[in-house]
Design a protein that fits this description.
Length: about 300
Amino acid sequence: MKKLMSIMAAATLTFSLAACGLKTETSEQPQTSTEGSNTETTSLGVIDVVSREEGSGTRSAFEEIIGFNVDGEDPMTSNATIKDGNGVVATYVAGNESAIGYVSFVTLEEKASELKGLTVDGVEPTAANVLEGTYGVSRPFMMVYKDENLTDVERAFIDFLASKDGLEVLESTGTIVDTANAEDFDMSKYDNLTGNMTLGGSTSTEKAVKAAADEFTALFPKVTYTYDGTGSGTGVKNAQDGTYTLGFASRELKESEIESGLAYSTLCMDGIAVVVNKENSTNDITLEQIREVYTGKITDWNEVK
């Protein structure tokens, strides 16, 4: 991950708009698979589409990555079953043979005996595959800035984020990091840091960045920060004009943004697992099929081939 933080080049490389008419029920080493083809005809019939509640970060990320229900375009099927929380989605899918849902990688690992994580375009949902850029239901958390707007405080924070200590904080919030070549943070290089960091951008990166900033300011009590959750586009724009000393985006940067002269790096990665019941014979699904299932264009399991 330190390598990702140090390279200021294009990075390779999921979440929440309301949809009407939804059923709401509230309760509580890298490898590419070639064995994921769906060779059996299923008798499961109509697909029970399961999504998260409005306002869920996982839901907004999933919709953004798959490409539906964003800015009013390609709305989610009105027949979707809505569940609150990764654990509740997992329990529902585990108890319904015709269901499909999405959960965090952590939840899939915890519920591996009850759920099947589908390969997507033949690639397994693993952290290693996300870091390699081969698993499609994933996205980068990007940091952007203008070098001339940085003070010693921001430079120390950038160093902290690239360190083993910083990466472990990011990982504790559920993101995917690579600590293989990371070193411990050497705070002795930064004496008497004082100042305020003006941070802002994506609401999806907010939890992770705030956790890291909290740890950093605990090390340097005279440093403070603010984080303005305004969205990825505003995060990039405000980093360009100096409103934010550090901006954050939960997507790849656009060519126009890169050409504007911003420095940028990948903080960490975010991945989501598409899951079905253990009794479902389906093993693989494409990104396009996921989009068509969630928009109601595909409604029967026999169409997922």
